[in-house]
């Protein structure tokens, strides 16, 4: 029994050793120029693949990383519509008043304007109030066209065409054109006008 | 390290290299096929071309026949479709009128924005404000402020102006 066991063990082990032994000479047999050549080919292929991959990746970043993608004007339809709506609405409100309701206009301006635009407006509105009262002047402003040239998550730049109708008591109404470059900022979910330049 | 481990490591390195390459290629094809990116680039190209073309269409050097001809040729260069046809039709009359008046106009676009862009159709709507400085033959100068709405169309030579309207007061 013992002897047979030993034999089987030996029998199992025996085929193993020729296999491992066979591997070694194989490697050793190839260890000349063929093996070196194969290794060089593999290294070159790996390097080529990595370089190509990196090259494509860098090119992809170049294609992607342009100022074009940072600007959401028109490409984000919803946000574009929103800022146009908010700004048009704000301009219509702050540039419309009658001799009776200048206070209301002033109040809405505080909500719809900010920064430099609010300071400019406040400086101007003293005269406007007086003029409106003295001349019984009513001004109605509406937006004819508005386009967004730059839009990000927090800021926007727009060009707005306005028509302004001046009505003085007892006189025919006159209409004037105004073009404004507007800078707006998104604060608390609403677009506020922070700078206005007349064009 | 025995031979087997070395072979395995070799394959692992090869696999990693193949993955890196595949990642690079897929990232590139994705960037190329990105519709939003293509749209944003079209928008910027249309706006830039529109600004440039509107300045051209509001400029003319009326010094002499050669400069008038050159100016009118530029008008044709930056226009396409109906506007191009119209400018072509009235070219000889325009040239005569402009030569006679001899005044020079120089247009500067002060601000512009697209109001619409159809990337697939290759059309865009643009609004712009232009300051036109007109100098008459006698030397008297004045600046006019104008507002325009323009329709742009994509052509093999880039975006060109298809229609141009000066927006009058009370148009809405």
Order of helices and strands of chain A: HHHHHHEEEE
| Major beta-sheet overview of chain A | 4 strands, antiparallel
Beginning-to-end CA distance, first to last residue of chain B: 83 Å
What general form of chain A does the structure show?
rod-shaped
Shape of chain B: elongated
CATH class of the largest domain in chain B: Alpha Beta
In CATH, the architecture of the largest domain in chain A is: Roll
Please give the order of strands in the largest beta sheet of chain B: 1-2-3-4
Please name the CATH topology of the largest domain in chain A. Nuclear Transport Factor 2, Chain: A
The major beta sheet of chain B can be summarized as: 4 strands, antiparallel
CATH class of the largest domain in chain A: Alpha Beta
Beta-strand percentage of chain B?
25-35%
* Share of residues in helices of chain A: 55-70%
Q: Strand order of the main beta sheet of chain A, please?
A: 1-2-3-4
**Oligomeric description of these chains:** heterodimer
Structural class of chain A: alpha+beta
Kindly give the count of domains of chain A: 2
Termini separation of chain A comes to: 109 Å
Helix/strand class of chain B: alpha+beta
Tally of separate helices of chain B: 5
Question: In short, what is this structure?
Answer:
The complex is a heterodimer of chains A (about 200) and B (about 170). Chain A has about 200 residues and is α+β, with helices and mostly antiparallel strands.
Structural description of this entry:
Chain A folds into two domains: 2-64; 70-198, Roll (Nuclear Transport Factor 2, Chain: A), CATH 3.10.450.50. Residues 1-25 of chain A have low confidence and may be disordered. By secondary structure, chain A is an alpha+beta fold. Chain A contains six helices and four strands; from the N terminus they run H-H-H-H-H-H-E-E-E-E. The longest helix of chain A has 32 residues, at 33-64. The radius of gyration of chain A is 39 Å and the shape is rod-shaped. Chain B has 172 residues and is of the alpha+beta class. Chain B folds into two domains: 1-33; 39-166, Roll (Nuclear Transport Factor 2, Chain: A). Helices cover 51% and strands 30% of the residues of chain B. Chain B has a four-stranded antiparallel sheet with strand order 1-2-3-4. The model of chain B has no long low-confidence stretch (mean pLDDT 91). Classes of the chains: A alpha+beta (199), B alpha+beta (172). At the A-B interface, helix 1, helix 2, helix 3, strand 1 and strand 2 of A face helix 1, helix 2, strand 1, strand 2 and strand 3 of B.
